[in-house]
């Protein structure tokens, strides 16, 4: 019954993905830059006249949504447990000055070292699609991003929420990139996308919404490097807020300098007595939901602490001499690791490049013709390993 009488909108996506605002709001006030935006700036979401209550969820705390004057509508807030994480860039000159205040010297060195190592090992380019992108490039990147997400989340045995609405994202983001209400950031290894991020933009705000990376490059910590590069670009473009969105994750806690709680509104006609009863029921329902959410989180944390971490078997690399390599080379054939049938070798190969500070272009891989043994020959080191299944 309650669902038939309650209309629910996800404000976070309405504002940033659809650039839309519910018709009962007269505008949005941005607490971070003291700017106000009237409803005329947005697409208007009409309310369903059959609904008695209108619930607007996930309003970022830095936004104040103001009800129109001279109406019978009333706004009430609901309790919330969802946290948002953002980087407030306003008081910093560039990404380096921000990192100086946010990270220890050791962490800053690690991030820069990984960036240099990535660029040493591969032919790396960085590309922001913002205001312009061909349809061919767009479809290519979306297809690759979907593959990266599925591969990454299969590895950690989780479900990515964006995949549930993937068709909608694919249909909408292209035009948003062209009108600069969205951007796509890509790290390329030669012509191969290895890290892709989709962000939304509104005034001085960037929402880092969908992102994933090629897990074969995990050693390089691409997730940290793409944030670094996006913050660098955000300063250049004049953005002041880089919102990492909801969900408590380690990288968000390390990069953010502000944590906020999402607001939830219920809008109703204060002249209708029955609406107050429905409001009380809704608040009780939300309170019970929050308690269940907290209990589930505690059980998940307890389960994680009780379970032993599963460690994937790693290949053991063994140094071999040039003499041994030359004597055994007759039993090996040179292969292309980037070929599709050799993709299972890439993670070990890229780790070898990382550990030995070697370029992919000057490093060769040889496969034994009668066993699972491989040899990687770089300019500084030659190592042998055996694949395990």
UniProtKB/TrEMBL annotation:
Domain of life: Bacteria
Keywords: Acyltransferase, Transferase
Keyword Manganese attributed: no
Name of a matching Pfam family: Acetyltransf_6
GO MF term set: acyltransferase activity
Domain BioF2-like acetyltransferase: 106-253
UniProt-listed Enzyme Commission number(s): 2.3.1.-
Signal peptide bounds: none
Protein name: GNAT family N-acetyltransferase
Organism annotation: Thalassobellus suaedae
Lineage: Bacteria, Pseudomonadati, Bacteroidota, Flavobacteriia, Flavobacteriales
């Amino acid at each position: 019954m309650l669902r038939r009488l309650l209309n629910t909108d996800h404000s976070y996506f309405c504002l940033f993905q659809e650039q839309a605002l519910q018709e009962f709001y007269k505008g949005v006030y941005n607490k971070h830059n003291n700017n106000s935006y009237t409803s005329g700036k947005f697409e208007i979401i009409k309310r369903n006249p059959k609904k008695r209550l209108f619930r607007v969820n996930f309003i970022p705390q830095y936004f104040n949504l103001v009800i129109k004057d001279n109406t019978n509508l009333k706004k009430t807030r609901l309790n919330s447990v969802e946290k948002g994480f953002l980087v407030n860039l306003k008081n910093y000159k560039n990404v380096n000055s921000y990192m100086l205040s946010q990270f220890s010297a050791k962490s800053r060195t690690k991030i820069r070292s990984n960036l240099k190592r990535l660029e040493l090992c591969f032919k790396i380019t960085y590309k922001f699609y913002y205001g312009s992108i061909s349809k061919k490039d767009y479809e290519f990147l979306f297809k690759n991003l979907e593959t990266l997400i599925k591969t990454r989340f299969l590895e950690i045995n989780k479900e990515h929420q964006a995949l549930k609405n993937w068709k909608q994202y694919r249909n909408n983001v292209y035009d948003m990139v062209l009108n600069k209400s969205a951007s796509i950031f890509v790290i390329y290894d030669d012509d191969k996308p290895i890290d892709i991020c989709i962000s939304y933009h509104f005034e001085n705000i960037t929402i880092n919404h969908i992102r994933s990376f090629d897990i074969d490059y995990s050693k390089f910590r691409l997730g940290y490097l793409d944030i670094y590069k996006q913050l660098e670009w955000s300063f250049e473009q004049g953005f002041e807020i880089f919102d990492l969105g909801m969900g408590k994750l380690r990288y968000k806690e390390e990069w953010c300098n502000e944590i906020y709680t999402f607001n939830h509104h219920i809008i109703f006609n204060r002249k209708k007595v029955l609406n107050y009863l429905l409001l009380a029921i809704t608040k009780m329902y939300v309170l019970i939901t929050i308690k269940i959410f907290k209990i589930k989180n505690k059980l998940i944390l307890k389960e994680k602490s009780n379970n032993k971490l599963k460690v994937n078997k790693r290949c053991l690399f063994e140094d071999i001499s040039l003499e041994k390599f030359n004597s055994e080379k007759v039993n090996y054939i040179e292969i292309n690791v980037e070929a599709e049938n050799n993709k299972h070798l890439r993670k070990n190969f890229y780790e070898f490049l990382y550990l030995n500070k070697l370029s992919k272009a000057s490093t060769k891989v040889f496969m034994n013709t009668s066993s699972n043994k491989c040899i990687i020959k770089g300019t500084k080191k030659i190592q042998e390993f055996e694949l395990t299944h």
